[in-house]
Amino acid sequence: MSSEPSGRRSAGNAWRWALAGLIVVVALAVAVWPRGGDEPEAPQSPPVASGVSDDMRAAAGLPDCPTGTANGNGPLAGITVGCLANGRSVDLAAALAGKPALLNLWAYWCAPCAQELPYLQQYAQRAGNAITVLTVHSDPDEAKALSRLRGLDVRLPGVLDADARVRTAVGAPAVLPISVLLRADGSVAEVVVKAFDGVDDIANTVAGKLGVAA
Hints:
Layout: H1 6-32, H2 54-60, E1 80-83, E2 89-91, H3 92-96, E3 101-106, H4 111-127, E4 132-137, H5 142-152, E5 158-160, H6 165-170, E6 178-182, E7 188-192, H7 199-210
Parallel strand pairs: 3-4, 4-5
Antiparallel strand pairs: 1-2, 1-5, 3-6, 6-7
Transmembrane segments: 14-33
Keywords: Cytochrome c-type biogenesis, Disulfide bond, Membrane, Redox-active center, Signal-anchor, Transmembrane, Transmembrane helix
Subcellular location: Cell envelope
């Protein structure tokens, strides 16, 4: 029996080693290759809680926000905000449609706002159903808004406008407080850039711009 030449044996061994190396490389590539869509996705982080409980809302004692079924018009059309009383979404223009409104833009850290808010509550009581008076907290900290209103003993319907969309929509400057007087059709009658100094100041301004006597 003839033996295999040494050169041929060396070539065969080299080929087998090359094949073994190729198999190892392929196996490693398969191990690290990104998986397709068949595997389940990693679990998502839970949403961040707002920090406002039902008890906090109840303690503030705020009335529910106005609601409406008509399509809202004017610069506030399409703006949805959260109601401070219960956290529900409010279509602002639709909620205010059909009646004159006074929107008071404020924040918990604003000292002139704190002086003005009790006057607004007294005005709302005087005016009754002739006009909607709605506070608009123009800061994302809802818990501090509720705490501030509770401390002032102000119980007006209010909404949270965390990113100041209302101010932007009506073209108001970046100061507080601001009162926006809206006609029944949703158009802006006046943007009042000051703090009212009393109930009569509010009543006279509203009567002059909106024709609502109180």
